[in-house]
């Protein structure tokens, strides 16, 4: 595959994996948690490096997943103690992100870890860091994201009924004996794994965008969760493709252009959606 092909494939995998997971955050009204986890995982990555003294992907994945779950637990604990949910999210993720930044400046100055890389990533470098599988050189980030995308799809398929029920009616789920707390932390773990898998390639800004925007576009297109998941994959991939070519045209940041492309797609969907679009609402008001 060409250099450009690997970048597009990697970006599409980010859009697909984040888009699917983000759908459940949207229907649960927890989109700000995506911002919290995607920033907090920096602390997990730094701690994993300090403990293992290695930037190996598996250590990063474990560290970030643990911190993602700790972030969720801390936010829930503060909220249960009386702190407003949005304030809980702001307190926890800014604190964890700040600790991660401090640890980088103290112990990882000479390592390929820095705040700019954490926020924006650099997907253009992805094709140069490879390993060989069956005689084919594959970028490490692409291989990891492919595995994460397949894992996320498998988890969603296996626990689809439980995720759907707890997302729309947690009280009924409790009545039916569904382990609501366990499913909640399963989803948060999936968000953490997806975020850290995308983190090194595209940075926190695009991770947040991909966790929220494709699912939001899909939410405007359908009332069925299964169809929403499919649409979110399509919007995620479209944001990646249009953003990449937009970056080439403007000679701009690839991750930033992909985020901007997602925003443009959302505006178009918001306006032209056949179910909830502004144009349809205007026509309905005009004819009534």
From TrEMBL:
- Does Transmembrane helix count among this protein's keywords? yes
Q: Which CDD domains match?
A: TM_ABC_iron-siderophores_like
Q: Which UniProt keywords apply?
A: Cell membrane, Membrane, Transmembrane, Transmembrane helix, Transport
What SUPFAM superfamilies has UniProt attached to this entry? ABC transporter involved in vitamin B12 uptake, BtuC (SSF81345)
List, alphabetically, the Pfam families matched.
ABC-3
Principal localization reads membrane
- Subcellular locations according to the entry: Cell membrane
Q: Topology relative to the membrane, per the entry? A: Multi-pass membrane protein
Instruction: Establish whether keyword Glycoprotein is in the entry.
Output: no
Q: Which PANTHER family match?
A: ABC-TRANSPORTER METAL-BINDING PROTEIN, METAL TRANSPORT SYSTEM MEMBRANE PROTEIN CT_070-RELATED
Q: What is this protein called?
A: Iron ABC transporter
Q: Which organism is it from?
A: Terribacillus saccharophilus
């Amino acid at each position: 595959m060409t250099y450009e092909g690997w970048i597009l494939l990697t970006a599409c995998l980010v859009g697909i994996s984040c888009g699917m997971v983000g759908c459940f955050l949207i229907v649960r009204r927890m989109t700000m948690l995506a911002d919290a986890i995607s920033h907090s995982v920096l602390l997990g990555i730094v701690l994993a490096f300090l403990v293992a003294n290695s930037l190996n992907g598996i250590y990063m994945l474990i560290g970030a997943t643990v911190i993602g779950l700790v972030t969720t637990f801390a936010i829930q604990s503060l909220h249960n103690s009386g702190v407003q949910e949005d304030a809980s999210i702001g307190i926890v993720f800014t604190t964890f992100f700040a600790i991660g930044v401090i640890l980088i400046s103290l112990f990882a100055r000479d390592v390929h870890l820095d705040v700019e890389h954490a926020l924006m990533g650099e997907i253009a470098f992805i094709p140069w860091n490879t390993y060989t599988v069956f005689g084919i050189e594959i970028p490490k980030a692409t291989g990891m994201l492919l595995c994460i995308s397949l894992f996320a799809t498998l988890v969603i398929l296996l626990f689809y009924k439980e995720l759907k029920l707890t997302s729309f009616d947690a009280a009924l789920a409790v009545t039916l004996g569904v382990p609501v707390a366990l499913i909640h932390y399963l989803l948060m773990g999936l968000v953490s794994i997806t975020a850290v898998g995308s983190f090194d390639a595209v940075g926190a800004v695009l991770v947040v965008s991909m966790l929220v925007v494709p699912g939001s576009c899909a939410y405007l297109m359908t009332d069925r969760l299964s169809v929403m998941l499919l649409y979110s994959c399509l919007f995620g991939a479209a944001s990646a493709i249009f953003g990449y070519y937009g970056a080439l045209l403007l000679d701009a940041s690839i991750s930033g252009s992909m985020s901007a492309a997602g925003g443009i797609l959302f505006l178009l969907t918001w306006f032209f959606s056949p179910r909830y679009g502004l144009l349809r609402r205007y026509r309905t008001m005009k004819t009534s």
